[in-house]
Amino acid sequence: MVSGPDLGGGYLHQLSLDRLEGATTFTHHAQEGGQDAGGPPLGELDALGFVHPPSPCMFGGPRCWHRRYPLPVTATPKVRFAYQRHRLVLETMLKQAHGLAPVPFEMALAELLRKVAGPLRDEGIEWYVAGSGAVRLARGMTSPHDIDIGTTRAGVDRLGELLAEYLIEPVAPTDWPGGRLVVGGRAFVGSPRAGSRVEWSVPLDGRKPLRWEEFVGVAGVTRTIEVPVGGERVLISRPEYALVRAATRGRAQATDAALAAIARVGVDRELLAVLLERSQIPEAAREALRDRALG
């Protein structure tokens, strides 16, 4: 046991280190902590990437949640720090993830830029704001639940260094929602009561990137535009990515926000055609969405 039992966000937490055939894995366990943890919790942890293990957990039984990080023992200080910060900010993250509190997007973004923009620019590491944050910065009316960053493999590690004081998950190979195997990290940038979750990763599948993919870990693949943010010029992924993703998931409000952003920055017809062709949207719905985007 590396740490625990500890309390946070209505949950009881423990951090363990397992050794198997020379490999080591840290596991962040969490279970509902009852009144002692200030419970019941404000929401379940799947919204934050936790999963239920396939068999009852030795620490939390059948209702234990966990996050796992296959890292060497030498990473113990970094993993323990991220675990402790995760507990500290969990209540705020749950409120934001479940729509009970707004995300102070502009404030968190300003702090993010203060920490990373200069070093990444000076070192020539490509990075950009993606997802709903990109739509917001393209002046689409949306309220992001977090800040998603696209970058390269080198950028994943460097962001982990630059945001070390804010990490809630160490940079490590891991699984994220949708069954994606990635190497990535998560941070909560800001104060425990006023900040935003920040996520960044690159895929581990080793396949050749598709044309103009949004999250591939290879510089120069994703189509981006530059927007002013404070005193910085920040790259964002084009809003066509968010448009097709929202339409695929049937999210009408997010679709409208992405369309509004496209109307403001102009449509990339070539990118839109590629993304629609690649999507699982029915053909008739594709045509209707294309017509809306083209105005």
Summarize this structure as a short list of keywords or feature phrases.
Beta Polymerase, domain 2; 11 strands; 295 residues; 8 helices; globular; 3 domains; 35% helix
Radius of gyration: 20 Å
Helical content band: 25-40%
Uncertain segments are: none
Largest sheet entry: 5 strands, mixed
Which structural class best describes the helix and strand composition?
alpha+beta
Which CATH class of the largest domain? Alpha Beta
Separation, N- and C-terminal Cα atoms: 59 Å
What is the fold named in CATH at topology level of the largest domain? Beta Polymerase, domain 2
**Overall morphology:** globular
Fraction of residues in β-strands? 25-35%
Looking at the overall shape, the CATH architecture of the largest domain is 2-Layer Sandwich
Detailed description of the structure:
It is a single chain. This protein is α+β, with helices and mostly antiparallel strands. The chain folds into three domains: 3-73, no CATH class; 102-237, Beta Polymerase, domain 2 (2-Layer Sandwich); 238-295, no CATH class. 35% of the residues lie in helices and 28% in strands. The protein has helices at 76-97, 105-122, 131-137, 153-162, 239-248, 252-265, 269-278, 283-294, and strands at 3-8, 11-20, 23-32, 65-69, 127-130, 147-151, 167-176, 180-191, 194-203, 224-229, 232-237. The strands form three sheets. The protein has a five-stranded mixed beta sheet. A hairpin with a 3-residue loop joins strand 7 and strand 8. Helix 2 (105-122) crosses helix 4 (153-162) and helix 5 (239-248) packs antiparallel against helix 6 (252-265). The longest helix has 22 residues, at 76-97. It is globular. The relative contact order is 0.11.
